[in-house]
Amino acid sequence: MKHPTLKWLILTLIILSAIIYMYIKKQDSQSSAEATTKQEESTETKTKQEESTVTLAAVGDVLIHSRLYIDAQQADGTYNFHPMFEEVKPFLTQADITIANQESVVGGSEIGISSYPSFNSPYEVADAMKDAGIDIVSLANNHTLDRGEKAIRNALAYWKSLDVLTIGSHTSFEDAKRIPTLKKNDITFSFLNYTYGTNGIRVPKGKEYLVNYIDETKMKHDIQQAKTQSDVVVVALHFGKEYENIPNKEQQKLAQYLADEGVHIILGSHAHVLQPPAFLTGKNGNKTYITYSMGNFLAAQTDGFDDRYTGGIFNIRVTKKEVDGKQIIELTDSSFIPTYITNEQENNYRIRPLESIPQEELPQKEQISSYLKDHMPQYMEELKIE
After folding, report:
1. How many CB atoms lie within 10 A of CB 351?
2. pTM, whole model, 2 decimals?
3. Could you give the CA distance from residue 315 to residue 353 in angstroms, rounded to a whole number?
4. Which CATH superfamily is domain 46-385 in?
5. What is the residue extent of each domain of the chain?
6. Torsion sign, CA atoms 273, 279, 282, 288
7. Distance, CA of 181 to CA of 187 (rounded, Å)
8. Displacement of CA 31 from its chain's centroid (Å)
9. pLDDT in tens, 137-164
10. What would the mean pLDDT of 171-183 be, rounded to a whole number?
11. Which candidate, 380, 254, 371, 361, places its Cα nearest to that of 314?
12. PANTHER family attached here (predicted)?
């Protein structure tokens, strides 16, 4: 006959062993879960640390016609262009980088102010643009050589004194070899700029550095150099046909060439009217953002057509990521803020967000707005019009 006490003792030991085993297993499971959570948190933190973002804003032609500098002239002979930019300043300053096409050379009053067809603008234009939030100006356009080398050198020196980056025009061959770069939020951008021509004015022999012309061989070389010293390559092009609101085949062909070369962003100007932006796909599957024409940002062309007074602020978000040890650049959140140049009988010229202008002040506002909502997203359905 078995001893009952021994039987219960064995049973008790078995139960205790089971309880201890389950407790240890639970503790191990909790420790493993905590370790996994910490690892996931660490990975997430690392991912966030390896992701950088920059917002880039771009605007079109700043072309100072006589009516603008007459409006800006003060009693003492100086000029004040600040009010013209006042209403768009908040939109220009909120971007990390803002670039404009400075079409009329800012050569200063000392060599004589002039308008169409041979432009030279006062230094005060640059002061107002700097104050409004412009970080970079593209200078290679059909008016670069209007007033010769003196105007160009004056302009380059003055922009430099304001700490505004200039592209497309240089003081020497040595200067022209350098790729202008700008670093923001751990992303380095390089900026290149070229024009189709200079209104038949030839660059002085031996001074070809004064303006960059569109040349695929040169552009290819510059882009390759830019890739070695930056994360993002931006090219500003002065190209196309004036007053055409759709990019032509030559524009599209050149844009595709640049996309195939790996350019990330192309900023077009010259048409003086808005052309729809687009995303292109390069031969390596890369994504390229292009504004074929950004229209006039500040100008006073005498015909007064609405499309030549309509411009805008183009915005794109640039994100740099590290994925499996490989750097990736993403272009997202493309948006467009329509602007309109208003005046009161050729006085008080202002660049204004279209939405802020009262209907009674601009009776054709709804017509312009409706046109832009149809016109601008036709190559880019996701374009946000603000």
Report:
1. 26
2. 0.88
3. 14
4. Metallo-dependent phosphatases (3.60.21.10)
5. 46-385
6. positive
7. 10
8. 49
9. 999 999 999 999 999 999 999 999 999 9
10. 98
11. 380
12. CAPSULE BIOSYNTHESIS PROTEIN CAPA (PTHR33393:SF12), POLYGLUTAMINE SYNTHESIS ACCESSORY PROTEIN RV0574C-RELATED (PTHR33393)
